[in-house]
Specification:
Strands 6-5-4-3-8-9 form a six-stranded antiparallel beta sheet, covered by helices on one side. A four-stranded mixed beta sheet has the order 7-2-1-10. Helix content is 13%, strand content 43%. The chain has three helices and ten strands.
Length: 191
Amino acid sequence: LVPVRAQQPPPLPVEVVALAATRSAEAVLLDYQLNVVLPTAVEEAARRGVPLYFVATATLWRPRWYWRDDRIARARREWRLTYQPLTSSWRVSQGGLGQSHASLGEAMAIFTRSTGWRVADAALAEADGKTYVEFEWVLDTSQLPRPLQIGVTGVGSGNEWALGVERTMKLEAAPASVAAPASAPRVSESK
């Protein structure tokens, strides 16, 4: 008899390392850290100049017994990852701002983790412990060039491009040590 080695399953493309939603005195804050492994086809396309768009969405919900849950607030962030072959660097852009990085890992660290992401004002979330947050982080394939979109969703396409994670969690009150100190200067907006 020949001993058979148990094959380990391939690593998950997106693994949630840490995820927390807290309600501080001023805002609802989201912290997340993801471990993302780009599939070979996705990384190869990026190295050939195809821009990749990653989107993180956080939605704050209040449950209702008589109807669908009430969406209180939604926050969305979008990043564009591109490879610059002339400088052999990776560029991450968010809105009008961009930053170059020497390696793919450094570039992906920008959008695979966030601390203190302000999802909504604290006044919108009740302190009753029933409010919850839905978090989603995905590779947005709808923004790929049209020929790739056909290949991604067409016949024979694998799920290599289906990169993302969704989680739902209860909103928790922030510990007293995380709340802003009373002596901190407050900034007020004038309307």
